[in-house]
Protein: Cytochrome c oxidase subunit 8, mitochondrial
Organism: Glomus cerebriforme
Amino acid sequence: MNSSVFARSAIRSRVLTRPMRDGAYHWENVDGSHLPFSTKSKAGLAIKMTLFLGTGFSLPFVAAWWQL
């Protein structure tokens, strides 16, 4: 039993220490390039975030009002 545990741990350590390919995980070092939305217009971003987060926050209250 112990030999199988040691064998599996040796295999696992070899797999985990293998270096990852650098090309698959490269992002340009440009401000905001890793985000799925534009951060150029601060006012537009604030309005969109307020609408998005406000909709999710108000949904339970609207549902409770609708049920009452």
About this structure: Helices lie at 2-16, 42-67.
